[in-house]
Design goal:
The complex is a heterodimer of chains A (about 260) and B (about 475).
Chain A: E1 7-16, E2 19-29, E3 34-38, H1 45-53, E4 58-67, E5 70-71, H2 77-82, E6 85-88, E7 95-99, H3 100-112, H4 118-131, E8 142-143, H5 149-163, E9 167-171, H6 179-192, E10 198-203, E11 216-221, E12 224-229, H7 231-240, H8 243-250
Parallel strand pairs in A: 3-10, 3-11, 6-9, 9-10
Antiparallel strand pairs in A: 1-2, 1-4, 4-5, 7-8, 11-12
Chain B: E1 27-28, H1 35-44, H2 49-64, E2 86-87, H3 101-109, H4 114-119, E3 122-127, E4 130-136, H5 138-142, E5 146-148, H6 150-156, H7 158-164, H8 175-183, E6 189-192, E7 202-207, E8 214-215, E9 218-223, E10 228-236, E11 244-246, E12 249-254, E13 259-266, E14 272-282, E15 287-294, E16 299-302, E17 305-308, E18 314-323, E19 328-337, E20 343-352, E21 357-366, E22 373-383, E23 389-398, E24 403-413, H9 416-423, H10 429-445, H11 450-465
Parallel strand pairs in B: 3-7, 6-9, 7-10, 8-11, 9-12, 10-13, 11-14, 12-14, 13-15, 14-16, 14-17, 15-18, 16-19, 17-19, 18-20, 19-21, 20-22, 21-23, 22-24
Antiparallel strand pairs in B: 1-2, 3-4, 5-6
Classes of the chains: A alpha/beta (about 260), B alpha/beta (about 475).
């Protein structure tokens, strides 16, 4: 069987500190497609993002996550990264004293398994930074330390552009961005996306989906995907909010 | 020719400087400390009477003072079980070829003098009690810069030497300054004439080789008005199962408008007591900077001090301490403001791992009438595991109201969120931890010359990995 970089989530149950948050998620993101995962606050969106990347706080009690045909749930976060999984964080962590340039180079080396000559790396990074309207001074700044909300999100997408993952999970990348920053970030993502990369965009609002058009949309409510569709589902959510879909999910008889 | 041999492993597996040479010394004192031994050291060195008297008086002061009860545990020191003076060679090399082969091999293994060829203005290497090699760039010598060992300083520049020696740290300052004053040998004597700026660092390297050795180097630096010098010292010792004692005294005079930076990369093996007194006086508009990195030793007690003597003087201490298995780093700083319009800053970073203990102990004193003093103290401690320990002892004595004083202390751990973030970018747990630790000490490491910064990060990495046994 030919290897594909398809992400397949099967019956995934996840608990945090003993409380079950994901209650059987099934979702497939084929290579080259962009899927949006929408849902109200507390539905488990970020739990799914952290679980896919392997955060130790999230305990998988049932189910599988297959990537390139292999169950990645037993892999450490760095092993997942090396296999091509990427998470753009909602709240990127500051690493004081570590310059973004150093961090990017180390990260690229770790993911690729080989160092890149410094000049070649600089050229590549600069190219991607231009795309995201980031000036050279970012190189010397400490990772996410004192970054504004918009700068943090751009730095996340910069990492995505450099590491070229095969599946990228973007956790509320749009939160805290003004309209200009949202456009810049979205244009960056559109430039990066391609047939070799699957993207899962996690968002509460539809507005980022005005810039990055998803192939499919899924709605997560109370730890389960309750509905999947295409652009028309996004529009329905925009027009009617989440309540109708929540009611439908909780009272399946009362349609 | 002798060859360096590996010594027993006492659980410091990654300490790559733990080898030792067989002893082939021209003089080795008997163990213990008596008037006769002190007089003998003075006689071997052909010293003037005043120095001989100074030593003998210091010995009395040493004997009269009780062991300090604070700081670290000094109970393992047996003053009768120490060799106070070891003379490895007859003379001192001016060229590397003149240094005995076995010592040369040792220093080659330690990376001296390759370093010298690349980026140093002068090099001094002390082996046991004596400086066995030193050199200084010719152009600096012709400008009147003196960089030699303290014994030569006393012999060849007696006027300057006598004018300043013991004036910043009197022999009776504390028990260990008294001990050093009685048996001192080697160290560095640096004199920078007015207006001369030594653009690249002078480096001194200290090596203890023998078991139960006491090394008591003495350093005196005089920076005349408007001058600048950066002095760097490094130190290592073999890993022996019994203890050695290193007790230095460093005195620095920074005159009007001058600036001195003194950088230490202390990497003694974990059987060395490192009890050092370092103090500078900074005069009008002068700047004194101590950059103090303590990685090695069993116990270090060291608090580099700056006395801010005249308006405009500025003092700074940047320190890093790493306390690993069986280590106690009791390090810190002292800033004493005795003039108005002076400023000081202390930044201390410590890392404790494998049950090590790091203490910050600092004194900030502002005398009455010293208006417009500005001082800022910041201590950050990073605890790598549950068994390690960190303490902060900040003593603040302010006798004047019109001052601006800031003090901040933090204790942190490597956070799960930082680790996860870095690991999600492909870094292994070790690489991620190292990156966080390197970031933690970066504000200080960035002040080191590049070659030392690289070395420092490498040493920290070795310490973080620890021994496997």
């Amino acid at each position: 069987m030919a290897e594909t970089a398809e992400l397949v989530i099967q019956d995934l149950h996840v608990s945090v500190e003993g409380r079950e948050i994901l209650k059987g998620v099934n979702l497939t993101v084929p290579t080259g497609e962009v899927h949006a995962l929408m849902g109200p606050n507390g539905s488990g969106k970020s739990t799914l993002a952290y679980t896919l990347m392997g955060h130790p706080k999230y305990e998988v009690t049932q189910g599988r996550v297959l990537f390139k045909g292999e169950d990645i749930l037993d892999l450490e976060p760095d092993e997942r990264a090396r296999r091509g999984v990427f998470l753009a964080f909602q709240y990127p962590t500051a690493i004081p004293g570590v310059s973004l340039g150093n961090f990017l180079r180390m990260s690229l080396k770790s993911v690729r398994g080989a160092d890149m000559p410094i000049l070649e790396f600089r050229k590549l990074a600069k190219e991607k930074m231009t795309l995201l309207k980031m000036d050279d001074s970012f190189f010397g700044r400490y990772v996410n330390d004192g970054f504004s909300g918009g700068e943090k999100k751009r730095a996340e997408i910069l990492q995505m552009a450099l590491l070229q993952p095969q599946i990228a999970i973007m956790d509320e990348t749009d939160s805290g961005l003004d309209i200009d920053a949202l456009r810049t970030v979205s244009e960056g993502v559109n430039a990066i996306r391609g047939p070799q990369m699957g993207i899962l965009i996690i968002t509460h609002y539809q507005r980022i989906l005005n810039y990055i058009t998803p192939d499919y949309v899924h709605v997560l409510v109370d730890g389960r995907i309750v509905r999947s569709g295409q652009q028309d589902l996004v529009e329905a959510l925009e027009a009617r909010g989440y309540d109708w879909i929540i009611n439908e999910a909780l009272n399946p008889q009362g349609v | 020719m002798a060859e360096a041999t590996e010594v027993l492993d006492v659980g410091q597996g990654e300490y790559k400087y733990g080898f030792h040479d067989p002893e082939q010394y021209v003089f080795k004192s008997r163990k213990g400390l008596t008037r006769e031994i002190v007089a003998e050291i003075s006689a071997i060195k052909n010293e003037p009477t005043w120095m001989r008297e100074y030593r003998l008086k210091a010995l009395e002061q040493f004997e009269a003072r009780p062991m300090p009860k604070w700081g670290g545990d000094l109970s393992g020191i047996d003053f009768d079980d120490i060799y106070y003076y070891l003379r490895p060679t007859e003379g001192q090399g001016r060229t590397w070829e003149e240094v005995p082969e076995y010592i040369k091999t040792t220093f080659d293994r330690l990376g001296i003098p390759q370093a010298e060829r690349k980026f140093l203005a002068g090099v001094s290497a002390q082996y046991e009690s004596e400086v066995i090699y030193h050199s200084i760039r010719k152009d600096l010598e012709s400008k009147g810069v003196i960089f030699t060992d303290c014994d030569t300083g006393l012999r060849e520049h007696p006027e300057i030497f006598k004018q300043y020696f013991g004036t910043i740290i009197p022999s009776n300052d504390n028990k260990f300054s008294a001990l050093n004053s009685a048996v001192w040998s080697g160290g560095s004597f640096v004199y920078v004439p007015a207006g001369v700026k030594v653009d690249i660092p002078l480096q001194a390297y200290f090596r203890i080789n023998a078991q139960n050795m006491g090394q008591f180097e003495r350093t005196l630096i005089i920076a005349e008005p408007g001058s600048y010098v950066h002095y760097v010292e490094g130190c290592t010792a073999p890993t022996w199962s019994s203890n050695s004692l290193h007790s230095a005294v460093v005195e620095i005079i920074v005159k009007e408008g001058a600036r001195v930076r003194y950088t230490t990369i202390q990497n003694w093996s974990n059987n060395v007591y490192n009890l050092v007194t370092k103090r500078a006086q900074a005069f009008r508009d002068a700047t004194m900077e101590w950059i103090d990195c303590n990685l090695g030793s069993m116990l270090t007690m060291k608090y580099p001090a700056v006395y801010l003597m005249e308006p405009g003087a500025r003092g700074e201490v940047l320190s890093i301490a790493f306390a690993g298995r069986g280590q106690h780093q009791d390090a810190g700083a002292k800033m004493v403001h005795v003039a108005p319009n002076t400023s000081s800053a202390i930044t201390s970073k410590s890392i404790s791992k494998f049950g090590g203990r790091a203490s910050y102990r600092g004194l900030l004193k502002v005398h009455k009438g010293c208006e417009n003093v500005k001082s800022n103290v910041r201590c950050d401690a990073l605890l790598m595991d549950e068994e390690s320990r960190t303490d902060t002892y900040p003593y603040i004595e302010i006798e004047e109201d019109r001052v601006s004083i800031g003090h901040e202390a933090t204790v942190s751990k490597v956070s799960e969120e930082q680790l996860f973030y870095l690991r999600s970018r492909g870094l292994s747990e070790n690489d991620a931890t190292m990156m966080i630790v390197n970031g933690f000490i970066e504000p200080i490491v960035k002040e080191l010359p590049m070659e030392y910064a690289i070395e420092m990060n490498r040493l920290i990495q070795l310490e973080m990995e620890g021994s496997v046994g």
